[in-house]
Amino acid sequence: MALRTNGLMGVDWEERVNFERLRTERLARIKKILKDSEMGALLCFDMNNVRYITATHIGTWAMDKVARFCLLPQDDEPINWDFGSAARHHQLYCPWLGERSRAGISTLRGAMAPEAGRAEDVARKIRIELEERGLLNEPLGVDVVELPVLFALQKEGIKVVDGQQLMQQARIIKTQDEITLLNTACMMVDAAYDELYRAMKPGIRENECVGLASKVLYDMGSEHVEGINAISGERCSPHPHVFSDRYLRPGDPAYFDILHSYMGYRTCYYRTFAVGSASPALVDAYKRCRYYLDAAIDTIKPGVTTADVAKLWPKAQEFGFPNEEACFALQYGHGVGLSIWEKPVFSRLVSLDHPEVIQEGMVFALETFWPASDGWSAARIEEQLVVTKDGCEVITRFPAEELLIAGVRYYTATGPLSPTREIENHKNIRYGSGDQPWEDVTYTDGNRRDAVVASAKGEAVKA
Questions:
Q1: CA distances, 85 to each of 65, 88, 95, 126, 288 (Å)
Q2: Contacts by 420-425 with C-beta closer than 8 Å and gap 24+?
Q3: Rg (the chain; Cα; Å)
Q4: Model confidence over 81-120: pLDDT tens digits?
Q5: How far apart, in whole angstroms, are the C-alpha atoms of residue 201 and residue 186?
Q6: Could you give all domains of the chain from N- to C-terminal order, each with its CATH number?
Q7: From the CB of residue 393, how many other CB atoms can be counted at a distance below 10 Å?
Q8: What pLDDT sits at residue 3?
Q9: Is 371 in contact with 320 (CB distance < 8 Å)?
Q10: How many beta carbons lie within 10 A of that of residue 382, not counting itself?
Q11: Cis peptide, bond prior to residue 302, ω within 30 of zero
Q12: According to a count of CB atoms within 10 Å of the terminal CB, is the N or C end of the chain lower?
């Protein structure tokens, strides 16, 4: 175990996250990659990219507005245009930006009237900076952009090219401090799952589980609970990817995916439970789901490709889907950093024909799914890991090697009720014969009815 788990406070007696090093190493990495590219500058509207380059953040409410933006010119420092008063705040509290923190606003995804000229103002700001540096005739990489802004940039004579791949290339290898923050984020989810496991019982709703886990995370210092999948009962197969207000019932499968960020760094972390008891079908599905996940993890080391991993997983047709697109993200892997889906991607849809090489310093999640033979329950497990020089280290630690039973334990006159049982009582009835009429003999569905009739008549029955 190479990674350390620290407290969340800053202290003078122990080295923890070095935020100055985090800022400088991220910026140095994207500067080098930009220098080696055909682009003269990089313009970013994606808030995760803006944070990577400028180390600024104004809250998750702004993530879908595409309103703030930064420009990173070749051989120069980044300029950040921010939302109103946030620009002045960053001048005061972000000394690494200083006067390069400026007010600027885009169209708010079209909320501002086109006649207001916001798109043209953005393009004009960028043109001026490029002209001053002799970069106007060089390609400008852009990550995501509103169409009016794109058209305005082109009208200013700027050649726009795809800059998102450049940012993905920079973010694919994590620095020491990024890995520490990702490990810390997973530690917080470990705690959330422990609380969730203790709280789950018949009568609790999926949305209450979401609220409980969210509170644990925010109380521990989470910056943003991006989403929590809470899926139970018959909603488990097919996977709906969204929670509801469904009540958990005895014998239900329930799986969760907890996505949150600490200092911007994310988790994607599935666990599956059974409420009170688990059917043999769910137990079998869990074992198979775990097998595919373990086979993938055991393969991970530098030099292996995403295709080597994806080919270990079952084809879509093997678990009830017509093609790989229809079951996308059920047998899956993806980079995790400032966003939950980064490079590299592991999927039979794309990886077999377009493999990516796994490198030391990557952090990604691997997740598997398997539908149970009963047609409605399913298992879903996910582990997040760091690639080391000779293998990997898993940083999601809540127990998942076997299916956990949550909720109230039930006791009969002869001892605990078996945690492996069908949810319909009559399918668990056991019959016997002779001197011990109710000894532990299990009958199959085919002869259960005959056994009941014979028993009622006082006749001996055969197993």
A1: 16, 5, 16, 20, 54
A2: 420/277, 420/278, 420/279, 420/280, 420/283, 421/251, 421/277, 421/278, 421/279, 422/251, 422/279, 422/280, 423/249, 423/250, 423/251, 423/252, 423/277, 423/279
A3: 27
A4: 999 999 999 999 999 999 999 999 999 999 999 999 999 9
A5: 25
A6: 19-170 (3.40.350.10), 176-406 (3.90.230.10), 429-456 (no CATH)
A7: 15
A8: 87
A9: yes
A10: 24
A11: no
A12: N
Contact 399/426 with Cβ under 8 angstroms? no
Give the residue carrying structure tokens 């953005």.
122
Question: Taking the C-alpha atoms of 393, 398, 404 and 407 in order, what is their torsion angle to the nearest 10 degrees?
Answer: -170
Q: Residue 207: is its pLDDT beyond 60?
A: yes
Task: Give every CB contact of residue 153 below 8 A, 6+ residues apart in sequence.
Answer: 122, 123, 126, 140, 142, 145, 160
Cα–Cα nearest to 56, from 74, 66, 67, 68: 68
Residue 4 CA to residue 352 CA, distance in Å, equals 35
Provide φ and ψ at 251, rounded to 5°.
85, 0
pLDDT of 128 higher than 80 = yes
Q: Sort strands 265-266 and 224-232 into parallel, antiparallel or unpaired.
A: unpaired
Nearest to 230 by CA among 250, 249, 246: 246
Beta bridge partners of 208: none
Main-chain dihedrals φ then ψ at residue 19, nearest 5 degrees: -70, -30
Enter the tokens of residue 78: 């980044």
| Token pair belonging to 338 | 């400032």
Distance (Å, whole) CA 369 – CA 293: 9
* 233 close to 253: Cβ distance less than 8 angstroms: yes
Residue with tokens 């309103």: 67
* Model pTM above 0.70: yes
The pLDDT tens digits of the residues spanning 156-173 come to: 999 999 999 999 999 999
Chain length of the chain: 463
Give yes or no for a contact between 230 and 243, defined as CB atoms under 8 angstroms apart. Answer: yes
User: Which residues fall within 8 angstroms of residue 38, CB to CB, at 6 or more apart?
Assistant: 138, 139, 161
Q: Which two tokens stand for residue 101?
A: 């923190």
Estimate to the nearest angstrom the gap between the alpha carbon of 371 and the chain centroid.
20
Indicate the SS3 state at residue 357.
Answer: strand
Q: If you write DSSP's letter for every residue of 131-175 in order, what string do you get?
A: HHTT-TTS-EEESS--HHHHHHHHHTT--EEE-HHHHHHHHTSPP
